[in-house]
Design goal:
Blueprint (H helix, E strand, L loop, with lengths): L4 E4 L8 H15 L6 H19 L5 H16 L7 H12 L9 H10 L3 E6 L3 H9 L9 E4 H4 L6 H10 L10 E5 L2 H11 L2 E5 L14 E3 L5 H4 L5
Parallel strand pairs: 1-2, 1-4, 2-3, 4-5, 5-6
Helix pairs in contact: 1-4, 2-3, 3-4
Length: about 240
């Protein structure tokens, strides 16, 4: 199959989110006089992951998520931070936007696809100011024809509304779906969203996570370099 357009998820597909999160969270909590113990870090990650799943299902807004994760952390562990939750949230987002760490092979694959004439875009549920700062400050800046952020569309993956928005931004028609591929690490948002919209899907699964959802992505890859062949590009 030859694809003319590839939609990339951002976090854990092109950008190393755990590394950025660790950098931002450690500094934020330290500044707020909260000890960065394993208990605190694990509690935050569990709370944060649940809230992002709730966001995908429309159970919480992104604006609420930003502060709610820290409010729950403080309440759950009985913490007494130096700053208000809203201040902690803003500082965390600022530092998260500075966490520019690329997944291995991200630059090479995007450059190779660009040179081959494949149109690239990012489609992300992430927070806009964080994502735009990271993309603009990375080696991938300028490689994408569009950066589709859920905040701008009013919809989160897997909702078809965000894909409609992406197609409009890229000048694509519904008849073009067979030429579009979405690449991402998430079964629940990227793969389910792509399947529901009728485009081919590529599950980036470098850590060999089990597929427990019964979804059948069009492709499954361990390395981003595998995309060269999947995209029908001579290398």
């Amino acid at each position: 199959m030859t694809y003319t357009h590839i939609l990339f998820d951002a976090d854990d597909t092109l950008y190393d989110y755990p590394k950025a999160e660790s950098h931002a969270l450690t500094r934020t909590l330290t500044e707020a006089d909260i000890a960065c113990t394993d208990e605190v870090m694990e509690a935050y990650q569990a709370i944060n992951q649940k809230l992002w799943r709730d966001l995908e299902q429309g159970l919480v807004t992104q604006a609420a998520l930003r502060t709610e994760r820290f409010a729950r952390l403080v309440q759950e562990l009985g913490l007494t931070p130096r700053f208000e939750v809203a201040e902690i949230s803003e500082r965390y987002l600022e530092l998260l936007g500075e966490g520019i760490y690329l997944i291995d092979g991200a630059y090479d694959i995007c450059r190779g696809l660009n040179e081959a004439g494949v149109h690239l875009a990012i489609i992300t549920n992430g927070i806009k100011k964080v994502q735009t700062n990271r993309i603009a400050g990375s080696e991938l800046s300028g490689m994408f024809e569009a950066i589709i952020v859920s905040e701008d569309t009013g919809y989160q993956k897997p909702h078809p509304g965000i894909f409609d928005y992406a197609f409009e931004q890229l000048g694509l028609r519904q008849a073009d779906k067979s030429r579009v591929l979405i690449v991402g690490d998430s079964l629940t948002s990227d793969m389910r969203g792509g399947q529901n919209y009728g485009i081919d899907t590529c599950w980036f699964n470098p850590f060999h996570r089990p597929n427990t959802l019964g979804l059948k992505p069009t492709y499954e890859i361990r390395s981003l370099a595998e995309l060269i062949m999947l995209a029908g590009v001579d290398h």
